[in-house]
Amino acid sequence: MATIKDVARQAGVSIATVSRVLNEPNKVRERTRLRVEQAMRAFSFQRNVFATALATNRSETIGLVVPRLTDVFFVPMINQIGNAVDARHSYLIVTCSDYAAQDVERCVRFLQQRRCDALIVFPGAMTDTQVAALLAENPNVVVIHRFVPQYASRCVLVDNRLGTRMATRYLIDCGHRDIAVITGPSYNQENAERLATFLETMTEAGLPVDPRLVAQGDFLLESGEQAMSALLATGRRFSAVFCFSDRMAVGALSYLRSAGVSVPEDISLMGFDDMDYASLVFPRLTTIHQDIDELGRIAAEIALSLAGHEVPAPAKTLLPPRLVVRESVLPIGTRGGARVSDGREAGARWIAPASMPRVEGSE
Amino acid sequence: MATIKDVARQAGVSIATVSRVLNEPNKVRERTRLRVEQAMRAFSFQRNVFATALATNRSETIGLVVPRLTDVFFVPMINQIGNAVDARHSYLIVTCSDYAAQDVERCVRFLQQRRCDALIVFPGAMTDTQVAALLAENPNVVVIHRFVPQYASRCVLVDNRLGTRMATRYLIDCGHRDIAVITGPSYNQENAERLATFLETMTEAGLPVDPRLVAQGDFLLESGEQAMSALLATGRRFSAVFCFSDRMAVGALSYLRSAGVSVPEDISLMGFDDMDYASLVFPRLTTIHQDIDELGRIAAEIALSLAGHEVPAPAKTLLPPRLVVRESVLPIGTRGGARVSDGREAGARWIAPASMPRVEGSE
DNA sequence: CTGAAAGCGCTAACAG
DNA sequence: CTGTTAGCGCTTTCAG
């Protein structure tokens, strides 16, 4: 592969001149520039990025850490960040870390080692304290889906509490009083916020939550099936289930279908996230929409500005969620026939069958 | 950030020795090695990858080119490749190219510029000739989902023709005779193969295909809705539709639902790909499974061996597809009532409604 | 087993 | 406007 030396010789100039036409072409006389460019073409010259990075100690690269690549949740975000970075002629390196704090930290190290100009990290299971430390030690890091007051300008997230409140209120406003919930994993901070806000909102409405109606999942589809099975097994009646992720809602839906319980006639189902497939399943999922694209765009802008690019400051870093009403939640008493749930036979009817059918193809 | 110079001074050795403990630790006396390692820890030394790459002209990096990041089709593959590359202590850089040949080529250039040790590329809309040229010019490239005889060992793909044949035969064996098809975009080579094989298989079975029953889509969901609408609008009767992608099948399904046509009772639907959501929709999709994970794994192995790693040679690079029978295809005559399609009223009944409802949330 | 020294390809003062 | 030159941090002979 040709180097600037070859090009310089060919064009009859010094390597400094070649470097100039590469970096500040207007500082070189047009005639020589043309000559150099022609020589470059002749050799189909490609600048060695490692040499450049070594000399400048910059890489024109933004690093991204996500815990899971197969998660449909991250994909649109990655895409959005990629576009934004691309538009500034920078490059994106994506690493996939898993959820544990040390895995995330390993990825951060890896990216810093590659001299990324800035990093965007999704902190997985890191505690708030760990995230704060991360932000303190790495001034070029922006964090997604977590809020650390001291570094507010480097945190971008959607308003998790507000979203939870909207969903809960909607269920209550639809007349539901016995609302079950399928949560995410306990180590997850967002999940903790959601659960707290859910309980809070219920309490405000004078609706105490029966502990039997709180089932834990891990945000993934299969855990939704299992949790729903557990919920039915308690025998405690409920008319609606609030799932803290669409994936778990789909799992729950699948379980209910196999158990002969119809949604939303027998049980209403509320999701969270508004993934692509929320509108593909039947019935289509009523859920909380999070503007993941916007999230990615804003995170990328902050990162690019940290990297020294001239980028307009983002208007806000706390995005509003949106309630998307589709078909999986029904106001209570709306169902066609006489079988408006009175809760008596419910416990008996919703016993889980002995063998729980699995949905194939799920993660 | 500390350099080997700092470490060397601290440990009282030369930089060459430090370099050795980094690369061939067994060639240095244990005592000095220990001293050096301690110095490294003291500075929390991180080797500068750019300097290394510049000196060695290797990057320990595998590059990947996919046309679209948001496509659920590529995600598991990326993940799989990432794991394989990781296991060999190499790194993966993913670029997203779009489908046009020149976009793919731009990405290849980008990655070669980063001195990737090997590349895995999904050639999008490139012609077979272009792919052949790509393979000829870049001996470190492996290609996914395309076959070039001269470079067979660098092509990994699932048997597209066989998959198509299996799907078509299954529909025929179920008694369907009037089978419509929703194809992918015409520039796509795989699509061309599928269409040819479909027609071939039909002809072999003595079932001529009415041109009105061939509708073109682009593999994405919305095109499935549109194509299905077009199909119904022809007035030509058919009992089954073979969609060349699951996404289009889901789109078709959604359209049929809104048009009051039930699947599979009125029309059977066959997909292709077996995406995650094939088993999430209702009815669950009967489709052709492609082992994308395996595809990714094998591609990664070939790439790694091209990159000079010791990797077991993959057993085969042409993977077998698998027919997954679920619920969206029904043997003809199986439906409950008397309304076994006789084709008379069909044309009238399946007229598309004036306003075509859209599925939200799709790309 | 260890050190000296010459690069790898490019950038960035500094002179001219 | 252009050329000279000294690095950037690491690898890799070649001596010792």
Q: Can you lay out the helices and strands and say which pair or pack?
A:
The structure is a homodimer of 363-residue chains.
Chain A: H1 4-11, H2 15-23, H3 30-43, H4 49-56, E1 61-66, H5 75-87, E2 91-96, H6 101-113, E3 118-121, H7 128-137, E4 141-144, E5 155-158, H8 160-173, E6 179-183, H9 189-204, E7 214-216, H10 221-233, E8 240-243, H11 246-258, E9 268-270, E10 287-289, H12 292-306, E11 318-319, E12 322-324, H13 346-349
Parallel strand pairs in A: 1-2, 1-3, 3-4, 4-5, 5-11, 6-7, 6-8, 8-9
Antiparallel strand pairs in A: 10-12
Chain A binds a DNA duplex (16 and 16 nucleotides) through helix 2 and helix 4.
Describe the structure.
Two copies of one chain form a homodimer. Chain A has 13 helices and twelve strands. Chain A has 363 residues and is α/β, with parallel strands linked by helices. In chain A, the strands form three sheets. In chain A, strands 2-1-3-4-5-11 form a six-stranded parallel beta sheet, sandwiched between helices. In chain A, strand 8 (240-243), helix 11 and strand 9 form a beta-alpha-beta unit. The longest helix of chain A has 16 residues, at 189-204. The first copy, chain A, is elongated. Chains A and B meet through helix 4, helix 5, strand 2, helix 6 and helix 11 of A and helix 4, helix 5, strand 2, helix 6 and helix 11 of B. The structure holds a DNA duplex (16 and 16 nucleotides).
